[in-house]
Amino acid sequence: MGMKLVSGIQFAWGGAALILAGLALAASGEIALLKNNSMSQLYLILVGVETALVLVFALFMGEKFTPRMILGGGLIISGMIAVAH
Questions:
Q1: CA distance 26 to 21
Q2: How far apart are the C-alpha atoms of 53 and 22, rounded to whole Å?
Q3: Each residue of 23-58: pLDDT tens digit?
Q4: 13-34 and 39-60 helices cross at what angle (nearest 10)?
Q5: pLDDT over 90 percentage in the chain
Q6: Exposure pattern of 16-52 as b/e (b: 16+ CB <10 Å)?
Q7: Which run of H or of E encompasses 27?
């Protein structure tokens, strides 16, 4: 969401702050999860979850999805599930 705000005609400091807060939150969460989980499994789960979150936030921001984009997101998530098992 922050990247979308910053990518406009004028630079948005709020968007930049949102990017930094999101990166800090993601890094903190991943560090906490790595303490009790294997890196290989956790990475696969995180890629799938992050893909789903991007799709949800894009819908929230009013982006239009084509069937091709939905299929691509579904393939990424299903591929992560297949590799994780």
A1: 9
A2: 12
A3: 899 889 888 988 888 888 788 778 878 878 888 888
A4: 150
A5: 4
A6: eebeeeeeeeeeeeeeeeeeeeeeeeeebeebbeebe
A7: helix 13-34
